[in-house]
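Objective 1.3, modelling of assemblies. Example input:
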Amino acid sequence: MSGAGHQPPEAGDRVESALRDLTVWDAPAPSPGLWERAASREAGGRGVWAVLGRPLPQPVLGGIAAALFIVLLAGVLLPSMGRARVAGVAVDARPAPEASPAVAYDAVAPSAAPARESAAETFHPVDGAAPMPARSGVPGDGAARAVVRKATMELRSADVRAAAAKAALLLNEAAGEYVQESSISGEGRGARAQLTLRVAADRLSEVLNQVRELGEVTRESITGQDVTAQVVDLEARLRNEQRVEAELLELLQKREDAPLADILQLRQSIASVRGEIERLTAQRDQLARMVSLGTVLLIIRGTDAPEKEAGAFSLLGTFGDRLAAAWRQGVRVLAGSVGFLVQVVVGGAVWWVLLGLGVGVWVRWARGRRGVV
Amino acid sequence: MAHEPAHESDEALIGRFAAGDRGALGELAARYEVMLLGLCRGLLGGRADLAMDAVQETWVRVIRSSGGAAGFAGRSSFRTWVYRIAVNQCRTLAERRGREARRQEWDNGSMAVVRPRVGETAGAGDVAAAVREAVGAMPEAKREVLLLCYHAGLTHEQAAEVLGIPVGTLKSRLHAALSELRGTLAQEVV
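Predicted structure (tokens):
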């Protein structure tokens, strides 16, 4: 290995001589040779290939690795997508109590039972709801969730006034239920009544079933708003403020001989914290009322009453309504499309990363394959 | 098997090894192993143990690649191919060693890397040690060019092929590296 054609830039230079010496192996050659160790190692690690007769070509190995990666990806991805579809169905189905009322309401309205139990002490025409039970869980942990239920039902009845009166009588005042708003207009078969009922969440399904019997149902919808995160957040903030208040009080007791300015500042801080506690408590109670009492908007029309409120026919108005409806529909579709894209990009982030890694490994492997020769 | 090892080319030997003749690899090792050890020790800051690891890993890569399409296909000489593998192994080991050193420094609570000045550890008249220190303190790219160009086993053309750069680039880097080295050593040893 004399390096034919190699000519040191400046022969005789001590530095260059030292440079040449830097890459000279002056120790005894390893025994056994390193190539023998490498060959032994490879022979031990290639038992499978020895069984097969000869090593598999690199493209075959690459193909096997790619296939394994795809199988792994599909094995993880497909069940996840399946779960996502099931979850989507569950969410969509949740507001439909008639499908599975026991599951829909018993599971999602935990505060209704306490509301009934404590109704005797806490009943009030306006503030009829019982305090919301404390929750230690977080949203999605499988524990009870706080859901605000709203239902709208439109009926046709021959006797609107009687149907409205019966609807009001369906409420159980002892459970904190009440008529929040009521109005009747028109006479006879052309009458129209509108009632806003506040119904204990766990009785919502039962009350709706009874309301359906008051006439012919022409329209019905139920919505649910999950406020578990707000409840958890409120309770956490409340606990924190209470802890701060306790600490400030303790500090105040320990520092009785402190300068007046310090004590005044402490008192001011305590007052501020107490104000915050009251504000948070009021918010929590309000939320508890909304959760414990579902809202039913009931519209009862006589058999001769028009579907829409009477109004002067206006070509421009009709055109405007259609235009507005089309605009709203367009915005909804756009929002849905954007939401879907965001869901694909953000929700699938893990898979994009995995895919990127896979492609990166493949590209690196392909480049290495070209570059090593 | 009537082979004539003394006249047989490297490419013929690797072909024989790919066909199952284990002895052919021994013959290639007899030609290159000591040369590779020297180069790897230089690239790895004089660490003989690391150099032996690097060379052993080089042979492992040669064995694995010799039978496949991704291996040696005769588009370059065996010499530059095996040297390129060795240089890559040295880079990998050096990087790993650097990471371990940084982690150790971190564990010891010292985040600052204190490098001794050239000549601090070598005696004023010990040129070889001073050069070793100065080369060890150079950036990897310059160090590789310097050592490959002064390695007895390679011409400049072959060194450029091993590093995957044009010969002109190699020469300009060599010039810059030598200038830096001389400048570093000027007050200490030259």
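The CA atoms of residues 1 and 140 of chain B lie 45 Å apart.
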